[in-house]
Amino acid sequence: VLREQTIDTTVHPPLKPEYLDIIDISKLLKVEQKTIYNWVSSGKIPYLKANGRLLFRRKEIDEMLRKQTAE
């Protein structure tokens, strides 16, 4: 008995990761990694440290960008 199979070919947009690393955040903000480190040192950007790595919560970065564009 042959049965017809259907395949879902819907293209789904890639999921945005909840956390970004230093490389991702520098690309997103279009600044050098050194600038991000300076912002971290001076408290200008929210971050977390996990296993010695700097991580940035996408939600907080998006909110920071919204506030800057609203000013």
TrEMBL record:
Residues 19-68 form the Helix-turn-helix domain. Pfam families: HTH_17. InterPro entries: DNA-bd_dom_put_sf (IPR009061), HTH_17 (IPR041657). This is Excisionase. It comes from Tannerella sp. oral taxon BU063 isolate Cell 1/3.
